[in-house]
Write a sequence for this structure.
C-alpha cells in the first residue's frame, strides 16, 4: 500500500530511563499527518460519544470548554521513533466525558474530522489515562497538531492520540482503525515497541 515504512529511524536511542526502546529525544514538535490539515470553525465543532446501543451524547465547543478541565504534563512517543518529554496540555478527561454515558463496551473507535479513525480499549481511556486536549503549552492547540482538540492517550504511541477528534463510538468487539488496518499494531505500547502487526 506504500504508507508504512520501517525506515523512519536512523538515530540511536539516547540513554534515558524516560525513553522507551528505539526512541530518540526531540525538543521540537514534529508534524506528521496522513492527509490535509482540517480547519474546523469552533461554531461547527462538536464531540460525540455514541454507545453500542446507539445512545448519543454530544457537546458543542462552548459546552465542551465549560466542562471541568485538567492541566497536565506528560511524555509523548511517536511510532516514527521520536519522543518529546514533559509536554504540557489542558483538556477534558475522558472520565468526565464518560461520567453520564451508560456503556458496557470494552472498546472504542475514535473518529476525527477528515475521516481518520483509531481503536482503543476503554480501560485505556479511563482512570486519568486520556483526555480531549485543546491547549498545548498554554496556547490554543494549533490545527497542525490536531486543534481545535485532539485525543491524548500519552501511554500509547501517538497515532492513538487522534488529531481533530470529534467523537467516540463504543464497540463490544475490537476492530482496526485507519493505521491499524494498514499494518500498525492494534494496541501500540511504546515500552513493548508495538509498532506493527506481529510486534
Amino acid at each position: 500500500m506504500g504508507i508504512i515504512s520501517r525506515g523512519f529511524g536512523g538515530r540511536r536511542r539516547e540513554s534515558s530511563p524516560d525513553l522507551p526502546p528505539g526512541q530518540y529525544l526531540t525538543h521540537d514538535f514534529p508534524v506528521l499527518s496522513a492527509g490535509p490539515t482540517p480547519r474546523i470553525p469552533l461554531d461547527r465543532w462538536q464531540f460525540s460519544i455514541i454507545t453500542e446501543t446507539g445512545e448519543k451524547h454530544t457537546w458543542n465547543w462552548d459546552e465542551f470548554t465549560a466542562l471541568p478541565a485538567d492541566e497536565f504534563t506528560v511524555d509523548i512517543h511517536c511510532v516514527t521513533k521520536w519522543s518529546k518529554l514533559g509536554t504540557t496540555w489542558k483538556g477534558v478527561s475522558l472520565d468526565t466525558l464518560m461520567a453520564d454515558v451508560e456503556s458496557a463496551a470494552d472498546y472504542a473507535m475514535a473518529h476525527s474530522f477528515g475521516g481518520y479513525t483509531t481503536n482503543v480499549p476503554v480501560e485505556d481511556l479511563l482512570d486519568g489515562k486520556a483526555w480531549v486536549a485543546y491547549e498545548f503549552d498554554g496556547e490554543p492547540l494549533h490545527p497542525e497538531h490536531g486543534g481545535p482538540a485532539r485525543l491524548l492517550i500519552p501511554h500509547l504511541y501517538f497515532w492513538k492520540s487522534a488529531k481533530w477528534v470529534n467523537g467516540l463510538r463504543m464497540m463490544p468487539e475490537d476492530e482496526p482503525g485507519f493505521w491499524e488496518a494498514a499494518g500498525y499494531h492494534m494496541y501500540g505500547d511504546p515500552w513493548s515497541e508495538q509498532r506493527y502487526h506481529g510486534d
Helices lie at 61-65, 94-98, 178-181. The chain has three helices and eleven strands. The CA atoms of residues 68 and 92 lie 6 Å apart.
